[in-house]
Each structure stands twice: as C-alpha cells, then as structure tokens.
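Q: Got a minute? One more chain.
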Amino acid sequence: MAAIVSVRPLTADDLSSQQQWPGTPLSRMEALAVLQTLNANLLSNASATLTLDRWCEAHRLAPPGSKIVAKHVQGHDKPANVHIRKLLHVGPNEPIVYRHVRLACGDRILSEADNWYVPARLTAEMNEVLNTTDISFGRAVRSLNFTRTNLTARLLWSPLPEGWDMSAELPVSSSGPLIPPPFLLEHHAVLKLQDGTPFSAVVESYTNNVLDFPAPLLYPQ
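A: Always. Here it is, folded:
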C-alpha cells in the first residue's frame, strides 16, 4: 500500500541518545536482533504507546515508573488528503483532527508520530484530553479496546549489509561506536473500533533512542 505521508526527518541534534554499542560484527548482530524484537512487539500489539511503555521499563531508559508522554510539535499541520480520508472511510467534509507528537520516555524521544483521527468516533472526554494534555493517543483511547491494521512496516536501517546471512563478509571491527541514523523503523497503520470502523491513521517513526542502553555482552567483544 502506498505510504500515507512522508515524515519530517529529525537531525542528530534533535535526539538525546548517546550510543553504547561498539562497532564490532557481534554488536551489529545484537543490534539487529534487538531492533527486530522491537519491530515484532510493535506489530503484534494494538497500542504503540503501551509497547513503548514496556520497552522503556525493560531497558531502563527512564526512572522507574516512567510512562510515555506525547510532546506536541507545533507548526507542522498536515490536513488529511484523499488517501487519509479513504483509509478512514470519511467524506470530503467530515472533520479530521491532525496531531503531531514525539513520544518520550523520560528525556528520550522514542518515536515521532503523525496521527489523523475522526473526533466524532471518540468520546467527548477523549477529545478533551487529546486537545488539552500531553497524553499519548493510545492511552487516551485505550478504553475503546481498539484493534490495529498494519499497512507497512519498514526497517530504515540495518546494522548488517543486505545478504550478510549468505556471505562470510561482515563489516570489519571498528574502534569507534556503532552510530545508527536518527530513525530506525517506520510503521503505517490504521486503528479501528471493535466493529471494524477506522478512526485513526498513523505514521510512526522510531528513533535511535530505542537502542540507547548498553549492548548485550553475550561474548567478549
């Protein structure tokens, strides 16, 4: 399926991560395994927010008890186009709200998300908290028991070259750290009510801060 919309890329200065992965072949394999684990977790759960809550806690990316919060990004309004309206099953005059946020775990931004949603398909209370607070979308609408239809899931960066599993040629060890680009994963999805009615279309881009913890030391590096 065609991409919903391109996401404005962050620069390295926008992110707070200090990478802790050495530039060795083993570390690259570990990074790929961790990244694919996160990808699988996100694809198998309806709420990216709750998945990131668990990821944040498990990898100690913030003080204990921290929850994902949505930091609004102003000045990047993207009105719903024909494709978005088709995904949400609404006509040209149906109101659609656009919300652009960065989901943060403590002081680390884990993802940047574009979200178009149909306010008429949410409760008045949900619309109020979405309009007036930094609550994440998934947490605000959790009581809907919504489902998620994934449209695309794309690995934006791989620490190993394509075809590495069929070749003995792996990147040579480096004395410096392994430094991923700002974004590592991109997901496009539609959230639906229990009866199958779509109410939200999202583009989620996951930052290199999802790897901002010490590399596993399975063997000497």
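A: Confidence is low (pLDDT under 50) at residues 1-18.
Q: Perfect, thanks.
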